[in-house]
Amino acid sequence: GIKDLSVKCGFLTGYETREMTDAHVNAVMILGEGFRSEDIFDFGAQNTTKGIHKLIPVMLKHRLTPPPEDSYSLHRKMSG
Questions:
Q1: How many CB atoms lie under 10 A from the CB of residue 63?
Q2: Structural domain containing residue 8
Q3: Quick one: average pLDDT of 50-57?
Q4: What is the DSSP secondary structure assignment for residue 41, as one 8-state letter?
Q5: pTM of structure
Q6: Which of 23, 22, 76 is nearest to 49 (CA)?
Q7: Mean pLDDT for the chain?
């Protein structure tokens, strides 16, 4: 699932705590909202940033590796 693919892509090492893994999976699901919508996704009127913001304290405390550099432009686009 998401955890295995995240390890393969370098977002996780596979040695994260359960709390970190859960936060990461939740973040992926939040970021996926724009891709699940059948309508045109309104990046300006979304709650993606708020949802991710709630997970940041866990990620800052428990992250073992930074996200792959290529992911930063996608994160900026998804946050509007």
A1: 17
A2: 2-78
A3: 93
A4: P
A5: 0.78
A6: 76
A7: 87
